[in-house]
């Protein structure tokens, strides 16, 4: 079922059955410098979110060397290992996406975009000061809550600021900008994790450097407006009209006369939709599909991304060399989405996702077989490129299928399943690595990708070129 059909069936579309005037005007915006500037600014805000999320894997050897955590544990749910650190991260992300995704729907994209980042930055600083595994895991969990809220907010924000014909490219650029954080954190980990500058563990420096840089959000937020769609949906039509008018003027288009704009101001009451409604028709089928998808895709993305150095060490490569190879592989994170932007809006989103999932499975099994450094790095780059193609496509996909009234909470709800999967993947990958080695880990990832392909190919809706619904 399409987003338009869902909106119509719930009374969230306008009286004429089509998108609201704000949505129509947004859809007619050209791909101007002003629109791209907003995408870049939001992506820079998300840069720190990715830095914080991805240092999990890169500081793992440092956590092990410092004696705080071990690489593997005897017990499946061992809370003294790296798997527990990964699990704490994603447990927090689950709480943030599942329980708190509604915050951006209630208080606005801009407000939550700012405060969620400040929340998880503060928690990360406290985490970097911990000297026990219990304290480390607790504060990593708390930081994860803020990261989860931020992820959902940025996705909804970008979806509502660009017309459908450039949404795929916008998310590809968004991912490219944000994921430049990965080679940065990889380089810092390669440099700092093996040493202890001024007597402070190198992994702590990696964490604190990212937290210090995130204060730039106070500058970024001054240049990012609230989502016009969110404002209009919440009865603040004049503000929405003013923001959209500025975007139209910056793009060189002529805004509609004020009298005309006033005539189409929405008169319907604002409808509040709770979580329970998402588990009933007409949203139930979409929610179920994307829950299954997110649960499985997380094994492909984080089963590799969070374990690159550890997987390399398991193949007999030293810690220093593994971090060096991981640093080289990390350059695929920002480059791959830029390359994918060339076909991001030319192909239907569901088929991009299926193709990327198939590539993850193929290149993953190749990685498991190789031992030559050059081949390992090449496969690692290709796996990462496939992961990033999958990532930009589904971040756009799972927000544009839902209407504005429930976009953040619905996206947060389904995305939370990837947090659950990633949380348990820490333990599952650690156990599989011990029992079946690297081949077993990629066998697990391949099985998850098969489910992704079948689910999205069979039941995924077509979205290319369709406007957003209110």
Topology:
Elements: H1 3-10, H2 21-27, H3 33-58, H4 60-65, H5 82-100, H6 102-107, H7 109-128, H8 133-159, H9 167-178, H10 181-192, H11 202-213, H12 217-220, H13 228-233, H14 237-250, H15 258-263, H16 284-305, H17 308-314, H18 319-330, H19 332-340, H20 349-369, H21 373-400, H22 407-459
Helix pairs in contact: 3-7, 3-8, 3-9, 3-10, 3-11, 5-8, 5-22, 7-8, 7-11, 8-22, 9-19, 9-21, 10-11, 10-18, 16-21, 16-22, 17-18, 18-21, 19-21, 20-21, 20-22
Supply the CATH class: Mainly Alpha
The N- and C-terminal alpha carbons lie at a distance of 16 Å
**CATH-derived architecture:** Up-down Bundle
Mean pLDDT: 84
Radius of gyration: 22 Å
Pattern of helices and strands: HHHHHHHHHHHHHHHHHHHHHH
Domain count = 1
The class by helix and strand makeup works out as mainly alpha
Silhouette: globular
Uncertain runs with pLDDT below 50, 5 residues or more? Answer: 1-19, 258-269
- What about the largest sheet? none
